[in-house]
């Protein structure tokens, strides 16, 4: 039986530039034939991962429950062996050991690309390098006829690796029961067998209505210039918009448990942290300029069994339009509820939905109202664990 946990949120942001494109403008997209504000899924996932780091500081997660995305894996391995081995020697051994599984180093003591590794994987790599220290040696460098040194290919290095060491290193790449890695997945280009398929999907957030870019013209004054000198000392423009975003994500519960190697307790912990982070974590783009800290005022979480996930973005295919005195968020929520009920009537649904509804939208038979985020999460968790 498949169980999907879906979260829908409506979040109305004051003027802001939360997620910029390469020109510095707020990201946008065409949807339903009109221009919408947009925040990328990568941006929202980064906000959730940052929230996880805060939860670790609060003691909710152990350090070993999470992963890091880095090119500095050799240094991280050296840190794990601090006090046991010389750091520079560990880095050399780590570069050689990881080359046995085709992960080569680049300049500056970094890997060729970002590696997403669980902390337990990093610690296990350090222990393996310490254990097989004397067997991890650099392959001799061959010289070509012109006198230049000839480097070995990834394939050649892997073939020449000590079998026992190589098998040990390969076995370590199992995700390390890291919650964030289990949720968001990873791709290792040189070790496709060690990829981990994500247990959650996050949509790009789009505005429920049409938007137009606006420009903030600003000037700055030199505090120390003479008083008799008029005029600004710097000027420019910042693009921004204001939008009510529809945000959506879905978690495959069975996949999450599988990625965490059957640890249901850790999966439940990770699910709760993800849902909480999805609600409260914000993108940080230009927040020092705009301070658009506006929490979602409508959040619905559905636990769905034996059915396909349902992104409700088409509730806004026709952009929401409000008249004077009407609430954009409330009208968006009513459109979302209406779309959900239409789809349920047409396709059926075995789901339980709880809703945090701070705007007084008419829920009809969409779900059960809750009074707080904490209650919403408690009910969702209880439903999943039934």
UniProtKB/TrEMBL annotation:
Keyword Coiled coil: yes
Keyword annotations of the record: Coiled coil
Pfam (any one): Cas_CT1975
InterPro entries registered for this protein in UniProt: CRISPR-assoc_prot_CT1975 (IPR010148)
NCBIfam families: casC_Cse4
Coiled-coil ranges (or none): 77-104
Protein name: Type I-E CRISPR-associated protein Cas7/Cse4/CasC
Organism: Nitrincola iocasae
